[in-house]
């Protein structure tokens, strides 16, 4: 009789085991070919990884209806809902897309359109994984996005870790994945755009008006004590952006390139023209 409830920690552990098994096979492959010249295997490295993942897919999911990590934890997919067409879609999503991305990175590095497409596709996958993980925490089913899309449910006749009842272990693993989730979300946030929106929201605050009026009234002057308004060091190739403060050229140009609406951190003036500061001797 199959079990209707599988602990979340067991499902997450099976994913970790799958990654470790793949890394182990890669390490064995690299150790077997370490005496060859690097230029021989480098051009076909995506193809070697494709063959390795295809071999693992063949002798795990195709033959046994479960991955190696799931087999070690006595898990498997429901065979009544695992058709050949779903196996093809599973293979294309988990292995085919990774191969296309790796091959594009190796062969089409200079093609900006292809690289932008790969970046957008990876971003969409990350966003989908984030929402799927939040749903998995709530429901306890479908730990992987492709499982949710194809409706593949995990079953088990018994659990190899049925003695694991300490809630601290489950809590620790869930918090570990939650921390990774937060790190992924933070990496996707446009901090410059967020700062600009926050700045526009707070532009009517009294201290912003006070600073802006004081900063805009004085012309830029450079003395021996003048420092860059961005890095607080002596200005290198001093430039200005329309306010009374002086910047390093690289500080100002880099911030402007990252955020066209970049404002002076001292007076919050958004200057459009970057001009060289002329020193009158």
User: Could you describe the largest sheet, including whether it forms a barrel?
Assistant: 2 strands, antiparallel
Distance between the first and last residues' Cα: 91 Å
Secondary-structure element order, N to C: HHHHEHHHEHHHEHE
The coarse overall form would be elongated
Helix content: 55-70%
| Oligomeric state | single chain
Radius of gyration: 28 Å
Please tell me the overall pLDDT: 79
Major sheet: arrangement of strands: 1-2
Strand content: under 5%
Counted by DSSP, the helix tally is 11
- Structural class of the secondary elements? mainly alpha
Low-confidence segments, given as residue ranges, are 209-217
Number of strands: 4
